[in-house]
What does this fold into?
Amino acid sequence: MVWIESLVSYPILASAKGRRTIAHRVQSLPPGMVASPRKLIIAIDGPAGAGKSTIASRLARKLGYVNLESGAMYRALALKAIQWDVSFDDGPALVKLAHNARIHLEPSMGGNRVLLDGRDVSQRVREPDVTEAASRVSVHPGVRQWMVARQKEMGAGGGVVMEGRDIGTKVFPEADVKIFLDADPGVREQRRLQQQNVSGAAAHAIVAELRERDRRDRTRATSPLVPASDALLLDSTELSEDEVLRRVEELVQSKLKP
Ligand code: DC
It folds into this structure.
């Protein structure tokens, strides 16, 4: 039995719609997975630190789908705003910047490689100043409109696990599978600190930043972080990563059954 894995490079350019580089790899299907020609759209939303990225990337690998981190696009735009000294509060200027940006996401085994205007900024966009800026640029309706349009193009063909904050509500309200992954705030904070291996004053700063991002994501006027009404709500506070993945896979398999 075989399954197809697609490695996709997406140029997210307003002027270059539809230009995609696709490489196919044939692998054997993992035990227990149902081979299906139907390529689903899977939306995974939730707050920072709930474990979305890990689950989305493991799930995509198992299904032979591409994993797209929508947050990386907001991060890339935020980095461009820093580079061009554009205010994070200036919505129209940020939209203009987005239209002139070349943002590519390249799904890979280790997460999405992020290219901004031809340069690999994968590491840079994870730094604290960009993290804070991404949260701020994402509140503007015009920015969100641009992002949602690009994200719709990227996932339209299916075979995609897209993670973010508004994938099940705004980007793909018609997604085949919608997961809202949450966890107790204290647990999310601890996970983030472990991931980054920090303590002391640096840890305090990270916790404060996470709380502020949470507040902004949940209270912004446009597309606040809320579960879609038909999403599976998964609280990972007391679940292992494997257990979360198992439950998500069960739902996926139920959708793949003829
Ligand atoms: O998932 P992330 O931490 O990389 O996202 C960075 C920021 O982008 C986050 O603070 C909120 C914003 N974001 C968003 O508003 N909508 C999305 N679909 C994804 C991210």
User: Anything to note?
Assistant: Strands lie at 2-12, 21-28, 41-45, 66-69, 103-108, 111-116, 119-120, 160-164, 177-182, 232-235.
